[in-house]
Every structure is written in structure tokens, then in C-alpha cells.
Amino acid sequence: MTRVASALSQAREQLTSHSESARLDAEILLANTLAQSRTWLFTRPEHELTHQQLGHFQKLIEQRQSGVPVAYLTGTRDFWNHSFQVTPQVLIPRPETEILVEHALQLIETHQFRTILELGTGSGAIAVSIADEKRDLTITATDISQQALNLAKANADMIGINNVRFIHSDWFVSLEHHHYDLIISNPPYIAQHDIHLNQGDIRFEPKQALSAGNDGLRDIRLIIDQSRNHLNTGGFVLLEHGYQQADAVRSLFSGYHYQAIETINDLQNHPRMSMAHYIQQTL
After folding, report:
1. Three-state secondary structure along 195-257?
2. Cα–Cα distance, 15 to 8 (Å, whole number)
3. What mean pLDDT is predicted for residues 189-202?
4. Helix (H) or strand (E) holding 3
5. What angle is formed at CA 26 by the lines to CA 20 and CA 30, rounded to 5 degrees?
6. Residue 249 and residue 241: Cα distance in Å, rounded?
7. What is the pLDDT of residue 166?
8. Which of 183, 194, 204 is nearest to 139 (CA)?
9. How far, in Å, CA of 218 to CA of 213, rounded?
């Protein structure tokens, strides 16, 4: 029989050349196999795995060796205050995107915003996290993928969130007459020929949620432009973008006559998101 400690040791060795977080990956996958927490693993290193558990764990390790993201193997990823279901049909929520939630909540509180729109909700992590903090608001969340919307709804139901309205839409197409105080999005922003699309976990994530034209700015450009027709006076747009795109995004905001343009750094001090507000032009 194989004990927890030896199973983890062997898995770490197998993953060392395939993952920068071999130890963490092994712990998460074994905890998932045993339906226990990582803390439980640390306190029971002598616990013996059954043949079935060991076989399942080894299959997960082999898939991780081939590059499959841990979140897709376990079907979950922690984000903000909850664990969200994820599938290969949606992006895996990342820690830096929590800063988007943080600044959205600050804007909502500071300006007493009441109408919030998230474009491209994916797993629903952003909209559901904001809705959980602001139960008195109804948030609209859209996605072009019906599979993503179904998953986002399932996440909202699982967490007990009933103040998010999910709409199937290609950006603003299904929102013709609606206006909002705050529009937020983590849109695709990787150039379609970027080599990173063929590296690491990104290889397994949906390309339509990652890639945005030759310069990576196709969807950001569209959102900044069309948001003007869907913002209440003085409303804000808050977007995540690539760390090398900050100047281009600020230029787009400026070119479309937004004001108070600001870029925000992520946990690695890289410029990761930008925001601006729009005053309706009068003739």
C-alpha cells in the first residue's frame, strides 16, 4: 500500500520538470482524489491510499504532466471568497483578476452605482463575487458562449447568489437599449499569433476567450467604443488588459473622449487594468 507522504513525494518528482508549482499541484490533486483538504494531508502522512485512489491519483498526475491545468483536473478554482466550478469551456479565474473585483467594488461604493454590467462573464467569477458583496444590486452578466453562461448560472446557484441576470450576448448585441453606471470586463487581449497561446496552461483554455486579433486590442477597442452608448452620464468602464497594453488602452480611452483615465498595477506591479469615465457629449 502507498501512504500519503510517499504518494506526494513521487508525484512531486514526476511533475518537477513539467510544472513550476509541482509540490502544490501534487497536494491539490491528491486532496481532490481523497475528497479531503491539503491540511488533512499534512496531518495524516501515514494514511494509506486504496488501489483505486492511487490509480485515480496517478492518472491525474499523468494528465498534469501533459500540461492539463490543475483547475480543469479538479473542476474548481478558488477566487475571491468562493470556489468556482470551471471547465475547458471557460477561462480559469486568476488571482490578478481579483484586483478587478476590488476596484469595481470601490467604484460602486464611492459613486453609489446601482447598475452594473460584466461583459464576457465566463465562469461568472467576477459578477458573482461582486454580487455576493453587494446583495442589494442586480448585476447583468453576458457571454457569447451558452456553455459558459450555463456554468456561470450553476456557480451562482451553488453559492446562493440570486442577484445576477445572465444574458446570452455577443458583447452589446442583446443590450441595445440598456444603460449602466459601471461596465467591467476581462476580455480577450492576446494577439492571435502570440507564442504564449501555445505555452503552459493557456494551451488548454478556450481560444475565443484569449485571442483578439492581430494586436490583441480588437475587443478592447470595441468595448471602449460601444460602451459610450450604454453608459449613464459619468459612468465608468473598467477593463483588464495585458501588461504591455496599458499605453494603447489609455490612448483608446482618450481617443474616444473618456476622462479621468487611470491604470492599475497587479500583484507583480505590472500595469494590468485601466479605467475611465465618460461624460455624454452635448451638441
Report:
1. HHHHCHHHHHCCHHHCECCCCCCHHHHHHHHHHCCCEEEEEEEEEECCCCCHHHHHHHHHHCC
2. 10
3. 79
4. strand 2-3
5. 160
6. 8
7. 98
8. 183
9. 6
Please report the pLDDT score of residue 283 as a whole number: 41
Distance of alpha carbon 276 from the chain centroid: 21
Determine contact, residues 279/231, Cβ cutoff 8 Å.
no
pTM (two decimals): 0.91
What pLDDT is stored for residue 167 in this prediction? Answer: 97
Contact 163, 137 (CB under 8 A): yes
Amino acid letter, 97: T
In whole angstroms, give the CA distance from residue 262 to residue 275.
5
pLDDT band at 281 (very low <50, low <70, confident <90, very high): low
pLDDT band of residue 191 (cuts 50, 70, 90) is: confident
**Which pLDDT value is given to residue 195?**
75
Q: Position 72: which residue type?
A: Y
The three cell numbers of residue 273 are 487594468
Helices (H), 121-215: 125-133, 146-159
Cell numbers 476590488 correspond to 102
Region 62-83: mean pLDDT is 95
